[in-house]
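help with this.
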Amino acid sequence: MIKNIKRVHLLGLGGAGMSALAKLLKADGLDVTGCDIKTPYYDTGDIPCMIGHSPEHIDSFRPEALILSSAVRRDNPEVVYAQEHGIEIFSRAQALSWLFNRSYGIGIAGAHGKTTTTSMTGLIFLKAGLNPTIYVGANVPDIGSNATAGGPHFIAELDESDGTFELFHPDIAIITNADWDHVDHYATRDDVIAAFTRYADGRKDGGTLIMCAEDDGTSRVFKMCSKTHGKIVRYGWGKGFDWGAYDLQPNPGGGISFTVSHDGFRLGRVSLTVSGEHNVLNSLAAISAAEICGVGFKDSAEILHGFHGSERRMQVKGERDGVLVMDDYAHHPSEIRATLRAVRSIYPGRRLVVIYQPHRFSRTAMFAGDIAEALRLADKIFLLPVYSAGEKALEHSSSDEIISHSKGSIQAVSFDDAPDSLKETLTAGDIFLTMGAGDVYLLGENFLNMN
């Protein structure tokens, strides 16, 4: 029904996903307004954004529909007022899928790696002159935004956290992994596999499924999804898959180089500026999607060499007094391990000081032991209280639960006390890494700017 609507109002406009969606809706010709509880972190361009939530916004902008961030509750005063006045209400995923499904869609899903894979894919298509539409859940400096409006190729990061990625029907469906996360929505690992299988089988007739062969979850999806529904392409280590990487070598000063094979044949070397074996796998997914759409390996390899990463993905924020400050979005045990190993490979021999902010009580309760084990890859670990993301506390869900598994290697600290603790701890030569999906990045910025 959204196709007949011309004026929309977005609640939660300042977030990564909503600000990107707003730009694409505006480019599609809609009259777009929005609001957020605080000044938007992400650029919203010339789209009007009111601070706070109030029914007065509905009276002022007179939208035909509201589009809600997943963080907006149904008892929000604007939502209640809109319902009382017969105004249509859609989720972010519903509105995005309306744009995506009418295009040649390239959907990137996975518990980890989807932001970087989407960014890599989008950059290849952009630099190769295919004029893509791009939707990604982070700012991408090489692209200049978290969204671009272009031609028929629609490259989108799809969110599995609440199951809404099943609304999307790609021509090319990419699954980077099917790890168990978002335990507030998926009660068991089997529920995750079933959802990714439905996503895989929901691609358009004749569509291609690209999936990582190195993940146990995607291997289960591979066995369960329809074998007759389009082509399935797998990527992984060595020469035994459709696309493979081998002979990996870290680059001096950061980045990683590797040889790529396609159907068992050597194509050549790729040298990434970003580090980490996980990014090698991400790049294989991007190269595979580009090849399907006519971009050759040589061009993809050259373009990927100029990819400098997405915001909050092993992002170097600056240096002060010989301390290099980095930030990363990792909040799941698998992501924490991958990030810490990658940072170690870039800066061998330097002390790694991490301040980690657990994200969601449900995730903390389920993975506390795994989180503690993953964090031990750092030399010094500070642990903040849980960033709730709107959840209520559960039994065994506090940061203390992680500490109980840490064998004394983790030091608890409050957000207010963290700056002093860090100032006393950090010395020249250290790598200081803020890590988590909440607002922990502010502590790195605070350290860089303190008097």
In short: The chain has 14 helices and 21 strands. Residues 196 and 330 are 21 Å apart (CA to CA).
